[in-house]
Each structure stands twice: as structure tokens, then as C-alpha cells.
Amino acid sequence: MKITSTILSILAAASLVSAGKFHQVKHGKTNIVPNAYIIEYHEGVSHADAHNGLKTHAVDYKVRNEYKIFNGASITVNSEHDGHALASVPGVKNVWHVSIYDMPKTQKVTAKKTDPLAISDHHMTGVDVLHEKYKLTGKGVKVGVIDTGIDYNHPAFAAKGATKGCFARNGKNCRIAHGWDFVGDAYNGGNTPKPDGDPMDCAGHGSHVAGIIGGNALDIKVNPKPPQPFVGVAPEVTYGAYRIFGCTGGSGEDVILAAMELAFNDGMDIINMSLGGGSAYKDNPTAALAETLISKGMALSGAAGNDGANGVWMVSDTGLGDHATSVASFDNMYDYYNYITYGGVKMPFSVSEAYAKPITLPNTLPIVPLLDAKGSLLDGCDPAQYTAVGSLKNKIVVALGDVTNCKSGGRGANAQNAGATGMIVVSDDAGIDSLGGVAGLPMASISNADGMTMLATYAKNKKNAVSWSKDQGPFIIDNSGAPSDFSSFGLDGDLRSKPDIGAPGGNILSTYPLALGGYTLMSGTSMATPYITGSHALYMQAKHAKPHGDVIRQALKNTATISKNYKSKTFTSAAKQGAGLVNVLNAVLAEASITPDHIDLLDSVNFHKTVQITLKNTGKHTETFTLKNVPADGLISYQGNNTWPLANPVIEATSASVTFSQEKVKIPGGKSAKITLHFKEPKTNTLFPMYSGFVVATPKTKGAVAVHVPYTGVKGDIRKVPIMDTDHGFPQAALANATSIIDDAPANPYTYDLVKNFPAFISRFGSHTPNAEVRVLDSKDKLVGYISFGESGRQPLADENGNPVLNEYIWNGQVQTTQNATAPAITVPAGTYTVVFAQQHKFSKGEYPKDFEIFKMKPVTIA
Ligand SMILES: *[C@@H]1O[C@H](CO)[C@@H](O)[C@H](O)[C@H]1NC(C)=O
Ligand SMILES: *[C@@H]1O[C@H](CO)[C@@H](O)[C@H](O)[C@H]1NC(C)=O
Ligand SMILES: *[C@@H]1O[C@H](CO)[C@@H](O)[C@H](O)[C@H]1NC(C)=O
Ligand SMILES: *[C@@H]1O[C@H](CO)[C@@H](O)[C@H](O)[C@H]1NC(C)=O
Fold it and tell me: What predicted TM-score, i.e. pTM, was given to this entire model?
């Protein structure tokens, strides 16, 4: 009966203050800390009042973190059911699970001895000129690195005149002058953090990003020396190192909030954070706190994510706030390859997977290309092609890597049977193909262009030998300077234009903890984000002020370089590159701006056909600007009735048309003009095409920097985008014990005793939903209650091993009788139940059932 009185007290109190909102987990890939919650209080509710409320509510809880700027706390309760009731506690505004963010995934390559050409990323962005001509270094700017810590002893972080870096809180002679370890080495996201204050990095990621922001390895004489000199974007910034990850594993979102608050209180001008997860929605505590900090004058950049192989709608949530910067990755100009030299030309190659070791053939062996009567290269699929050229002993046979008739395994076997000592495969399309090959035969794949050069050289002198390099060298690769394949596609769940901007993130050489080798190359949007952070620092120093984060984002976006993919004649979608590749030099020199810095046209139902922009002349003199529309690639994001966005959206030459109220506009110095744009949707009839482009204002003055803003939209009614993966039979019921799934597709009819056998629900979502519900109906289809399934994020198409990523939920037979858990859960009596999955359509009001995609599962019998 004690319970009843608790309920009464909650209900009485709840009538005074409206109940809070319990948020579902919207990260398709993240885990949660069991029974841990982040709660936000209503404005004006003090921590003491809130704790009184929690206590009267009889929730037994422990405080994990108390926050100050974010009005709330994180707590642990005894059971999941206690947590779900939190939303009804007076004074509570929002309740979230504590999500565990993965340590950002990067591709790591060991840095090889290279030459100075490889410091190419600053040429792409104007940062080299800012360093050399304008002497900008980010001096005086404070940058918070919320990450795995920083190896502060690294010589690349040494203060001027010192040979070694150091960390001292508020220390004048250390570049790492702020920071804290919130977690300890053994923390993995799920266990209890053991803060120790020392932000030394044992994982490596934070040291790498810190080096990109402002490491200086130009003149290092101590060991280990960098494989080549390099410098970060802003080599005199002061760092705060806020360590939120242990040596491995993830980090709880409540730790991240604490780190963000401390970074702000330490006076950081900019924080840079990149956290995994493909939420695509901004209603999470991190994004909310980020917005608050930005409104107080701090800037924040977050990684767009490395989910480029998962189709559209996959941007990570850290950069999704209205004022935060979501950063896409561009490939560096150069990549490192072993190479052959033939006729004096260096040709990068990639070795076959089956051979998988360096090729150490003598440098005296000639080539024998397999040619047809016209001199064209044959595919090497027919053994007769080999017998036609005579003995291949001590020779390198050359064939075309066309996969129509055979793969590299078949081609390699033929070469081996014919007695060849090695094989060179000429790629038949862009890039250097990867080869499966055969064990025992050295097989190397080269680009098509190099293959053609090789044949031309061979035609002149058949005796030329191939030599094989021992080292790697830098080569301009096919996608050099263009958006990285791995970089995630937007838009966000609300169809806003994200990512915002791009920066070099593919193949970036930077610092690494000394204990782990000191330097390495890494790739990821994690590498692009700190580049933007460093760019902020240079911009702030150039303007001798602390402009609002919004102003800097706008300046960087307005002046970025709009880019094309490799060999493409058209511009890459703004849903992939944002406003383009950052050009900090142009941002500093520009004498114009366009507000807002992105145009969200939304879908056909909510289409913004008329949009006003403000073009400002920030220079001293009158300037005439010409406005034009520069279309970018359209993306076909769905095919047929498939629930899943396409892994690789198909590029379509389709775009909106734009007319301007004025195509030419003369603006006096310091003044602005309002220009009205009229948009028309593209004519295409493909399914939910995502189209985009750029509105560009070009000044008449020769050499003056043009400014632009990206626009993005989706044609069609976004409410009709399918959400649940019914194509592949999900959601489906499975058989579980209390902790694990035992049979993922048990025979019909399902009977569960809730002692040994529990029903489990396996689901998979191909699109985000603003709200998901799981209802339980009895045998007469009457609503019994709701299951707090708590998951509404989109899953990636597959994990790293190619397996589908699934949501699995083991049901203990309990339901909440109201949707927002204002009463304790009940266990359903024995009987037959139908479980209904309901996902709210994007951009709908959320009326049930009209605005939901609904899937009724086969009945479940509870014995
Ligand atoms: C809680 O649920 C009740 C009944 O389902 C509903 O009337 C009320 O509006 C909900 N409150 C909130 C804050 O969602
Ligand atoms: C900076 O952002 C990158 C990418 O998001 C992230 O991996 C890294 O942890 C962040 N480091 C800083 C500077 O906070
Ligand atoms: C989707 O399926 C419906 C019904 O089967 C069919 O009428 C429609 O043409 C399909 N749409 C596409 C784009 O394939
Ligand atoms: C549930 O099944 C898993 C896998 O078969 C097993 O490891 C675990 O011990 C079982 N748990 C219980 C509570 O029986």
C-alpha cells in the first residue's frame, strides 16, 4: 500500500508542474549505460528542489554528475522501471538514457618516410599562406580537446624554446594549460569512471587531433623524429585537454557534458569534439548543451561521421545544433604507395591480398604484356593468351583487370600455370583496383593511366626492366582534394543542411602518443573536425577579436571551395560536402557575407519556395555582385519500394531552378542588400531525390573573394519515407532467456513462460523517426500498455564485418500503462498479445495511428 501513496503523491505533484518528456535513444549505433539517466530540470527549478522531487517520488538513486550550465544531473537508479518514471517527477523537463558514445573510428596507417610534397593539406586550404605571409598561428586562442587526452610530453607540443611539451593547469610555460581526466585508463563507457585529473592519452586519437589543430613538428631533432616535418593549422594555440575516454571503449554522454562544462569554465574559445553515432537528430543533451555554450560565445565543431557507405541521413549528432559546425572530410592530395619504376616513370601499385607482403623481385625482369592483334591489352582470362607469348620464366606478365570474364584469382592462376614470375594488372577504371590474387604469385595492380604509359614505353623498348621500390612514396591519388568516400551524407532528421563544411581528413599525418610511436597517418572526419577548429583559431587571431561562433562558421562556409569528385564534371552534393572545402585564407580576406549560411528547402509538402538572403559588403568600398545558381549533383537515395536508403546514392543530373529578385546588386561599403530567391523543385520523378546547389555572389572587383551558401531539399512527401525494414522481415519475434537471444526465429506459435523463455523483438530501421512506440494489444485488440523500447535511430546498413545491425529487445512481460510512464509498470497476465511497432513519420504531427508507420507482429503467447 506504500506504493499507492507514492503514486498519489506523484499525481498530485504532477498536476502542478507538467510532466517531463522521456526521450528515446536515437543513435542507431550506440549503447546505453543500464539504469543511468540524464535529467534536465525546468527553468527556475533548483538542484535542491529537483532532488526533493526525486526523493518524494521515492526513487532510490545515486548522483553521477551535477551540472551547472546544463540545468540538470545524471543519476543511476535501481531498475529500468524507476528510470522510466522519472519524467513524471515535478520539476523534471527532459529525461534521456545515458548513451555510450564510441571512441571515434579512424583508419590508421603507419607513417612512412615521405618527402615534403606530402604536406599538402595546407595548400588546399590557404593555411600555408596564412602561416607564411600573414604570420597567423592561433596565438592567444584557447582550444578545448574533448577526446582521449593528449600526450602533453610530445615535443610537437613544446612551448617556444622548449624541447618537450608539458601540462600544468594555468601553467604559463605549457601549451597544454588546462584539462582534466574525467575517467581513468580502465574506463570503457559502461563501468564507473575513476577521474584522476591527469589527461595523458593512452589511446592516441586525442593526440592526433591535437596535432592537427596546432602541433608543430617542423624542427624536431629528438627521437622519434617525424617521418617528415609538418605543422598543425594553428601552431601557437593553448590547449585544454579534457579526457573522456579510457584506453579503449566508449564514453557515457554524462561524462561528455561534464567535460564540455569544464572546457567552458576554463575559458576555451572553441571546443572540438567528434563522437560516434548516427542520430541525425539534435534533441540530445550534448547538442542542447552545445547550443547553450555557443550562445555564450564558445564555438563548437563536431565530426559529420564516417558512415559514407551507409547512404543518406547518416550525419552524427554532435555537429547538428543550429549553431554548431558539422564537419565533412576531404581526401588529402597525396596518398602513400609502394611503386614500380618503369622507363623512368614511378607508378604506384597495390599488392594482392593473397600475396600480402612486400614484393622483392629482382630489378632486372622485363615485362610481357598480353596483347591482341591491334595492340590492345587482353584480360588474361584465357590460358591461350599466355601460351601465345612464349616462356614467361623470369618475366612479369601484364594483363588488363577487366572482371567481365574472370577475376584476379583466375587471372593469377593462369599466370602461375604459365610460369610467370610476377604479374602486373592494369586497372580498367578509375583508381588502383584492389586484387584478391593467388598465394605465391607477386601480383601488383597499377592505374589505367600508368598501364597505358607502360605499354607505350614497352612498344619503344621491349627490354626495359621493372624495378620495385623498398619504400613508399607520396602520389596524387584519384580522389585527391575531393570529398572522402567515408564521409557521411546528410541531411539531418529535420531535413536541415548538414554537414556544414569540409576539411582535409583523409590520410593526415599528425602526432601520436610517444609510447605508441610518436606519429601516424589517420583518416576520418575526426581528422577534419580539428582542422576546422584550428581554422577558427586562425580566423579569431586574424580579426583580433572573439567573433561569435556563428560569424566564424558563416565566414568559413561562405568562402569554402566548392568541389567535384574525381573525374566528375559536376559538383558534389551539398549533402556530402556541405558548403565545400574550407579555405581559411579566403575567409580572412573576404569582404562580403551571405546570411543565413545554408538554405533548407525541406520536402515537397513543406517546400520553401521563397527565401530571402542578406548579402553584406563588409569592405570599405562600393561593390557590385552578380548572383547565380550553381547546381550540384542530385542523389537518388531510394530505389523501388526498398526500406533502405541506397548504400551508394545514385548521382542524377537534377537540381532546383532559382530566380533572383536582382541578379546584379550594387552595395556601398559596410551596407547590405536583401535578395529574394524563388526556387522550383527539380523535374525528376525518382524516389525521394536529394538535390542541392549553391547560390554564389561574385564581386566585380578582380581577385575579390566570392561568397556562397548551399541549399538542399528532398523532392516528395517525406512522411512517406519508409522506416521499418519490413523487406527483410523485421520487426520479428525471437526466443530469449533472461539475458540473451537463443533462437532468432522460433517456430509459430510463440509461447513464453517469462521464467526461462522470454520474447525478444528484433527490429531494424532504415530511416530515423522523431518518435517510436511499441504497443501491446490483448486478444481483443484492446490496448494493454506500452513497452519502453527506447530506440528510434537508423541502423547502418551493416557493421564492419558485413553483418546487419539489429536492435534486440528482450521483453520481461512488463508494460507501462501510459505512454510516458506516469505509473509503475505492470506485468501482463497470461494470454495472447499482439505487439505493434509504430514509427512516427518525419514532419508529421504525431497523431496515432494516422501519422505512424505501423507493423503488427504475429501474436505472442505468454503462458
Ligand atoms: C502523458 O500521457 C498522457 C496519456 O497518455 C497524455 O495525455 C499526456 O499528454 C502525456 N504527457 C506528456 C508530457 O507527454
Ligand atoms: C575534435 O574533433 C575530432 C573529430 O570530431 C574528434 O575526433 C576529436 O576528438 C576532437 N578533438 C577535440 C579537439 O576535441
Ligand atoms: C511500390 O509498390 C507498390 C505496390 O506494390 C507499387 O504500386 C509501386 O509502383 C511501387 N513503387 C515503386 C517505386 O516501385
Ligand atoms: C542465456 O543464454 C546464454 C547463451 O546461450 C547463456 O550464456 C546464458 O548463461 C543464459 N542465461 C541464463 C540466465 O540462462
Answer: 0.82
